[in-house]
Design goal:
The protein has about 260 residues and is of the alpha/beta class. The chain has 10 helices and 8 strands. An 8-stranded parallel β-sheet has the order 1-2-3-4-5-6-7-8, sandwiched between helices. The two termini are about 25 Å apart.
């Protein structure tokens, strides 16, 4: 059956050797869509090339909070050019206030300008938030519900935040962290999400879920999405097929402009 991997990075160098085979496997085992997010200016061209090869890959362009110090003087113009040229969303953008991340004020400035651009253009946005919930909520409340909607990827917030995010037109996406039985917080958050706002993702090549067989190189691929689906379905006590169908419907609704370009 068709699946929707709501967040991954197919242009990552760690996947380049196996990309063709990976896409083939994805299509032959049911197909669906993969939302691949850029993280910094140098990977946007690679991402555009991959998305140009297949309708399966839905691209998002953006500057990840880890790379805000690397932007060129013309980065905003550059980003606007990509968003205009091909049907795409904005991402991965966000705030990461864990230790050893770039200056927080700079992170906020780069995040706000990309969020505002997505809002103005009515494009869906893929958001990364780590230990920066207060700042994110302040920015979001100031902006109001997002015109093109968006998702919070690999959600690590608390269950009580979920209704407010949903009211701001956000979907909540869960990664391999749901396969860790010790992560009670993520299980609680998952249960708080409305069924029509729920998404799943692999974040390939990162966030390898707990697998029945260990992977030697530690590299995650979209072929592991069913492992995330299975764990989420078990926590929600629903059949896995229902969860896969629901997250596919939700993903194609949110990324409607990319799956059905005019
Ligand atoms: Zn990511």
């Amino acid at each position: 059956m068709k699946r929707f991997d709501a967040h991954c990075h197919l242009q990552d160098q760690r996947l380049s050797q196996r990309l063709s085979r990976m896409l083939q496997t994805w299509n032959s085992s049911g197909g669906g869509f993969l939302v691949s997010c850029g993280t910094q200016e140098p990977d946007w061209a690679d991402l555009m090339a991959i998305a140009g090869r297949t309708d399966t890959v839905l691209p998002c362009f953006g500057v990840h909070p880890w790379y805000v110090e690397t932007v060129s003087p013309a980065w905003e113009e550059n980003l606007g050019g990509y968003l205009e040229r091909i049907p795409s969303g904005v991402g991965e953008i966000g705030l990461d206030f864990t230790s050893a991340t770039p200056d927080r004020q700079l992170q906020e400035a780069v995040f706000k300008s990309q969020l505002a651009l997505a809002h103005t253009l009515g494009l869906p946005v893929s958001i990364h938030i780590r230990k920066a919930w207060d700042s994110f909520i302040r920015i979001l409340k100031h902006m109001g519900p997002l015109a093109g909607g968006g998702l919070i990827h690999s959600f690590s917030g608390s269950a009580d935040m979920v209704p407010m995010f949903e009211r701001h037109n956000l979907y909540i996406s869960f990664s391999g962290t749901v396969t860790n039985p010790g992560n009670k917080k993520v299980g609680k958050a998952l249960k708080a999400v409305s069924r029509d706002r729920l998404l799943i993702e692999t974040d390939s090549p990162d966030l390898l879920p707990r697998l029945p067989e260990p992977v030697e190189d530690g590299i995650n691929t979209p072929a592991n999405l069913p492992v995330v689906a299975e764990a989420a379905a078990t926590l929600l006590e629903v059949p896995m097929e229902i969860l896969v169908q629901q997250t596919f419907d939700n993903g194609t609704r949110l990324f409607n402009r990319l799956t059905n370009p005019v």
